[in-house]
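Dear support,

I submitted the protein below through the web form. The confirmation email said the job was done, but the results page showed an empty box. After a refresh the structure appeared. I'm attaching both so you can tell me whether what I see now is the final result or a partial one.
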Amino acid sequence: MVNIEKYEIWSQKYDVDEIESDIIFNEIDFKKKRIVEVGAGTGRFTLKSLSLVKYILAIEPSNGACRILKEKVKQSQYKDKIQIIQSNFETLDISEFKGTFDIVFFSWSLYHISDIHLAITKAIDLINEGGIIVISQPYGGDYENCVNSIYHSDSISIYEKASKEAELLLKTRFCNIRDFYIRSCFYFNDINEAVDLSVFFVEDDESRNVTNEEKYTLSKNFAAKNIDKDHVKLSDVVKVIVAENRKF
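What the results page shows now:
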């Protein structure tokens, strides 16, 4: 069963820092565009884009995240501009949406998709002739490096592998592939909160229980990297890939 409370607390942490969305909006024109957001989560990016876009199709596989997103949307004056679908992108039937969108935006979601070739192919099918594909995902930083200490797999390698595979596929279909990097931060009230929420997501990703020894290691890593005395503030690096000008 999805822990709604944990999702809500976590969303409050990454919703606070607006640097990422502000830079993306400055780099890419979302105004009056029809958008597909793959991995909308609890609305970190979605809600901020509603005032700009013409329409957004928000796709999110998590029941808990979808419930939170829907509650947030109800309070928005732009709620008529969004459709929320709870589904994995890989299995979603997109036949009725083909060629009808200006932007497909993978929001911290591509590295969770096992078949990246399928995901990129479906994204290309969704966009119109002048459409673009945008991929935003973690790419290192103090927070990610700390959390990697309790992942059984090397999640930084997962991010890099997803980026490289996506870029190779996009280069076969687009004339212009560019990228840029954003440095942002996660904020927590204390080390215990940082550990608790991070453990929750590692366990959710890997379907296992994190050991007490791993929690202790994570706590030490957070304490060593923390750069703020009043609360836990940890840097994060985000890589954004933009594919423009389709070849055919």
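Response: this is the final, complete result; the empty box was a page-load delay. The longest strand covers residues 174-188.
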